[in-house]
Amino acid sequence: MDFLLSNTTSASISHHKLLTRSKLQNIFFFNFVIDYCQICTLSDSIQGTRHRFDQFGGLTLKAMPEEKALTVTNGSSNNKTAHVLTMAGSDSGAGAGIQADLKTCAARGVYCSTVITAVTAQNTIGVQDVSVLPEESVAAQLKAVLSDMHVDVVKTGMLPSTAMVKILHDSLKQFPVQALVVDPVMVSTSGHVLAGSSILETFRQDLLPMADIVTPNLKEASVLLGGLQLETVTDMRLAAKSLHDMGPRNVLVKGGDLPSSSDAVDIFFNGKDFYELRSSRIQTRNTHGTGCTMASCIAAELAKGSSMLSAVKLAKRYVETALEYSKSINIGNGPQGPFDHIFKLKRRNPSRLQLFDPSDLFLYAVTDSGMNKKWGRPITDAVKAAIEGGATIVQLREKDAETGDFLEAAKACLEICRAHNIPLLINDRIDIAMACDADGVHVGQSDMPVKTVRALLGPEKIIGVSCKTPEHALKAWADGADYIGSGGVFPTNTKANNRTIGLDGLEAVCLASKLPVVAIGGINLSNARSVMELGVVNLEGVAVVSALFDRDCVVAETKKLNALLTDTVAKVGSEMVCNK
Ligand SMILES: Cc1ncc(COP(=O)(O)OP(=O)(O)O)c(N)n1
Ligand SMILES: Cc1nc(C(=O)O)sc1CCOP(=O)(O)O
Ligand SMILES: [Mg+2]
């Protein structure tokens, strides 16, 4: 996926805001036509008052640091649990609404509390019923969460009455949060109207000015702009600018339905610069809930401390990756199915208990008996040194060792690894692994088949398998492996006659894989960065032999590689990045 930065800068808008607004209001008045269906019986009353907000009137939202780096992987930067509150409708089919928000936040490692505004009966065919909750109940839910549980970001979805917008305003005034993400849900993806016409004006006048970001799709942007035709990327830019004039700090116009584009193009506008965010359009029926997911992912990333632009970029990648992973899901008989938010769980074979942590593959030290002999180093010293340098997993690859010697060495190394909580795997020799109760084994395509190894070792041991092709990768998952070693990425002298697959081959394996992948083959300090910079989904780290063990000081070499990998991964950003 490319992010194209446009240098187009809008003129300062602040003093034009009210003028622009009144012009737009006229357009809305004459052009607004919306298809009423039974769902339009939603309550619209606001009990007499129309509330106005800051900057037009009094609400304080804590400012977001604009270019704060996305450095937090687990919870917010101040050690508090990152927390998103979603105020939205329940979707019985669980593809959108509250259910999508909960799953998205869970997938992104963020706590999510819920304020339910309406209960919808819907499935893959469409929306069959909507029950709007009493306003007192919505107010009570908001108060219960905001008054007690520290909320970082509020995200709104279906707000079926103007009164609920006022309740939101009053609640946020009493309990300010870091940011408000507004997904202006008005029309469901199946075409049902989820907010009546009278709420439209409240959205424009009251909700949008409160928002740190508003994320309309083309239909919603068009409705908000009085039925404006949006058919090109240029139209989307104009729409983003006009919506920004209504008061939100940032606007993301999502162009998933843009007829004139073969890509999925979104326009992000922060009041100054336009960003054109492009990704390939994924052909799938399983797109129900993409809007809610995008907005809740933005909210989750903001809650973790990300800048607005980074949060938007990451959310787009997250949705794209989830869609890609969910093509084969077959739920329901209607035209639009849900997708899988927690796609990473597919790495795991659900039929058995999984104890393996993919992040252990970050710096994988693989020993070599010949190299240890050359440097006069006992294997136990080699393993200790690698661990001291920062190795996160160790494999004993002792091709020349006698069985008895290998078993004794394995037992000694296991003691060292256990003391440091580092998994120890045995290369090729299932018998040695079983005899010393190692944490697992690594096998190649011509070693014992993974299914047989699994049957021998049971559900809890780690099994790695070497894969050079996407077909190998799919089989590895089906057979019950835990991870894939993929290479040779570069030519190597350590393994004779090894076929080099290059960075392209590695990328193809990672993209096809449902398992975490570690890259291997000729990787050293001069090229490890290029491997991790692929930033491809499933790639967790590098496995190395000679760059650590065919060296004078194993500790120093491991430390250097560890620092380089850490630095590269921090720059690449999220480990779920899918490089399209
Ligand atoms: C992490 C990791 N990946 C790949 C290999 C290679 O295993 P294999 O193909 O069985 O070749 P040998 O190591 O047995 O020569 C590995 N050992 N570790
Ligand atoms: C053991 C092994 N397996 C490979 C594969 O391609 O599967 S390449 C390899 C050797 C890796 O050693 P070095 O880090 O010294 O290049
Ligand atoms: Mg082997």
UniProtKB/TrEMBL annotation:
<dbReference type="GO" id="GO:0009507">
    <property type="term" value="C:chloroplast"/>
</dbReference>
<protein>
    <recommendedName>
        <fullName>Thiamine phosphate synthase</fullName>
    </recommendedName>
</protein>
<dbReference type="GO" id="GO:0005524">
    <property type="term" value="F:ATP binding"/>
</dbReference>
<keyword id="KW-0784">Thiamine biosynthesis</keyword>
<dbReference type="GO" id="GO:0009228">
    <property type="term" value="P:thiamine biosynthetic process"/>
</dbReference>
<dbReference type="Pfam" id="PF08543">
    <property type="entry name" value="Phos_pyr_kin"/>
</dbReference>
<comment type="pathway">
    <text>Cofactor biosynthesis; thiamine diphosphate biosynthesis; 4-amino-2-methyl-5-diphosphomethylpyrimidine from 5-amino-1-(5-phospho-D-ribosyl)imidazole: step 2/3.</text>
</comment>
<keyword id="KW-0418">Kinase</keyword>
<keyword id="KW-0479">Metal-binding</keyword>
<comment type="similarity">
    <text>Belongs to the thiamine-phosphate synthase family.</text>
</comment>
<feature type="domain" description="Pyridoxamine kinase/Phosphomethylpyrimidine kinase">
    <location>
        <begin position="91"/>
        <end position="335"/>
    </location>
</feature>
<dbReference type="InterPro" id="IPR013749">
    <property type="entry name" value="PM/HMP-P_kinase-1"/>
</dbReference>
<dbReference type="InterPro" id="IPR034291">
    <property type="entry name" value="TMP_synthase"/>
</dbReference>
<dbReference type="InterPro" id="IPR036206">
    <property type="entry name" value="ThiamineP_synth_sf"/>
</dbReference>
<comment type="pathway">
    <text>Cofactor biosynthesis; thiamine diphosphate biosynthesis; thiamine phosphate from 4-amino-2-methyl-5-diphosphomethylpyrimidine and 4-methyl-5-(2-phosphoethyl)-thiazole: step 1/1.</text>
</comment>
<keyword id="KW-0150">Chloroplast</keyword>
<dbReference type="InterPro" id="IPR004399">
    <property type="entry name" value="HMP/HMP-P_kinase_dom"/>
</dbReference>
<keyword id="KW-0809">Transit peptide</keyword>
<keyword id="KW-0067">ATP-binding</keyword>
<dbReference type="GO" id="GO:0008902">
    <property type="term" value="F:hydroxymethylpyrimidine kinase activity"/>
</dbReference>
<comment type="function">
    <text>Essential for thiamine biosynthesis. Bifunctional enzyme that catalyzes the phosphorylation of hydroxymethylpyrimidine phosphate (HMP-P) to HMP-PP and condenses 4-methyl-5-(beta-hydroxyethyl)thiazole monophosphate (THZ-P) and 2-methyl-4-amino-5-hydroxymethyl pyrimidine pyrophosphate (HMP-PP) to form thiamine monophosphate (TMP).</text>
</comment>
<keyword id="KW-0934">Plastid</keyword>
<keyword id="KW-0511">Multifunctional enzyme</keyword>
<keyword id="KW-0808">Transferase</keyword>
<dbReference type="GO" id="GO:0004789">
    <property type="term" value="F:thiamine-phosphate diphosphorylase activity"/>
</dbReference>
<dbReference type="InterPro" id="IPR013785">
    <property type="entry name" value="Aldolase_TIM"/>
</dbReference>
<dbReference type="InterPro" id="IPR022998">
    <property type="entry name" value="ThiamineP_synth_TenI"/>
</dbReference>
<dbReference type="Pfam" id="PF02581">
    <property type="entry name" value="TMP-TENI"/>
</dbReference>
<keyword id="KW-0547">Nucleotide-binding</keyword>
<dbReference type="GO" id="GO:0008972">
    <property type="term" value="F:phosphomethylpyrimidine kinase activity"/>
</dbReference>
<dbReference type="GO" id="GO:0046872">
    <property type="term" value="F:metal ion binding"/>
</dbReference>
<keyword id="KW-0460">Magnesium</keyword>
<dbReference type="InterPro" id="IPR029056">
    <property type="entry name" value="Ribokinase-like"/>
</dbReference>
<feature type="domain" description="Thiamine phosphate synthase/TenI">
    <location>
        <begin position="363"/>
        <end position="548"/>
    </location>
</feature>
